[in-house]
Structure formats: C-alpha cells, structure tokens
Amino acid sequence: MKKLLPLIFVSLMASVGCNSGGSDKKKEVEIAEVHHIKPTDVPAYIENYQSQQQALNFEFKGVDYSLSLIDFDMDENIILAKFELGVVYIGFDFDKEAPINSLTVLEATNINDLENSITASYSASNLSITEQDENFVYSGDLIDAQSNSLFNVSLTFNESLISGGNSELTIQGDMAYLSGTLGSKTYIQINELINQNPSIKTIKFISIDGSVNDAINMHTGRSIRNAQLTTYMPSDGEAYSGGVDLFVSGFKRKYETGGKLGVHSWCCEAGKPADQLGKDHPGHGAQLTFFRELLGNELGPEFYFYTINAASFDNVHIMSEAELDKYQLITD
Hints:
With 332 residues, the chain is of the alpha/beta class. Helix content is 27%, strand content 35%. The strands form three sheets. Strands 1, 13, 14, 15, 16, 17, 18, 19 and 20 form a nine-stranded mixed sheet that branches. Strands 5-4-12-11-10-9-8-7-6 form a nine-stranded antiparallel sheet. It has a two-stranded antiparallel ribbon with strand order 2-3.
C-alpha cells in the first residue's frame, strides 16, 4: 500500500485540559500545531503542482502527448505513466531520487489489459538525461522491436507526476465516488466537488490503495471535514492507509459490514518507520495534529498510534468492526 511521508519532496489548535476548573486549569498543556504544508501555504503549493503538471510532456513520433500516473514500483525503480496511445515505463531510483537511464514504450489498444492489447513496443537507445529547473528530461532514440527502425523521443517529467496520484472522482446521482491513489490531484478534485456541486454531501469509497502525498492528503481531509461531507464505506469497498485518513475525515462516517479499512505504519523518518520512532518524536507531529482535529485530543493520538503499530509499513491490518467501534470511526 502506498503511504510515503513525504514521497519526493485552517486547522484547529489542539489543546489538552480545556475545563475551567482550578485544578484542571493547572494541568492545561498546549499542544503544538504541526504541518508538513502550512494551511496558508496550500494555495501556493497547489498552484506550483498545477504548473509542474503543465510541464509534463511525451514527444512520441513527432507528436506531443500529456502524461498521467498509472502506478510505480519502488523495488523495481519504475514509474508507469499513460499517454493517449499507450504506456511509458520510466526508470527512476526512488532511494536516490534520481533518474535511471531506462525508457520503454508500449503502444496498446487498452491500457487496462496490456497483456492482450499491445500493438508495438519500443526501447530507448542513446538515451541522455538532463535536469532543467524542476524537470528531468529524457531524450534520445526509440527502437521499434519489430522493424528495428529508430526515431527521436523526448520525455519531460517532474515530481508532480507521482505526487498528484491517480485518483478518480465521479458523480452519480446524489453521490460522489472516489477511487485510486490519493495525492495533489485528489485535493483539487475534492475542492472542485465542494465548490461546484454543493448538493453532493456523500463520498462513496470504491477502492483506494493509499496516498503518495500525505502532506496534502491531510489538507484534503480537512476540506472534507470543513464541508461537513459524509464518507461512506460500502460492503464491497476498500481503503488503505491514507484512504483511511480520508474516511476518518468525514463529518459523518457510514460503514457497511464487509468494507475494508486497512492501516499500517508509514515510512520513513531518519531512515526509520513510524512504529520504530519514540512517541515523543517530532516526526509524528503532523499526523497527531490531524487526528486531534478529527477525533479529539485523547482519541486522536490513541487512534494514530494504534494505526502505526497495527502493521509494519510494508504490510496492512484490516480493522475489525470492534476496532472501528473502539475508535469511534462509525457515526452512522
């Protein structure tokens, strides 16, 4: 499941002891508000993301195409992106955050069924990679696997290709349907839903595999809570990792038996996953701020530390209904 914090690189002030009684007041402790992206900086962050998105480009057979994320594999160091005619496999070293001299292109009639729909394949030759501002530019030749003919190719990508995610938000009747991998794209989709479709009050979760950008995902959750939207997990739905964060963001939260809410630790801070950091480690700060806002000063941290200890970052724990009740995740 994808939940990297971070990947490539107005909330409430939480406090403890709010009672006005004398003895309680002495125990009052202010809790620092922590954000990876300050709320006031979110508009500029999204503007920069959109500017980066405009720079994404794949020049193939003399025609420019836009690129969007399908998936990525951090073990294989591959980013899989789609364009109008098929898919591109981009080599990228996630540990070093640096490009790899590797580029493969498949033309296909159906990118959802690549195995049975490939019409042509190409591999890169004489490939060079340069950095231009925030962009990586791959340029060289592609070799047609069938004819061995060569032609020029150029691909430009940047952080936004991954950090945007690939979520889809559609409207059917009086409900919005959310699926995919969460990121900056999701933040834009949710806020457009709120601003352009004020009559839609429920988001139904279809299949969410996690978040590639927790920094903005928490602000997506704040948008959901501030708009008092209901999050709905149907019996055949599933949400993992950052998807659970969005479910918890619902002002009301509806759950049907059979729906899967999967939690785990995130990775990494100073080379350590969250479950191996001490409870007082500053790396927990943004998530603690977020969950205090959603579930309160006591239950919020309790739920957060439960999630990071329920399963390692490379595994997942499906919450039981007893656990959903314990942490008050279901309101409807």
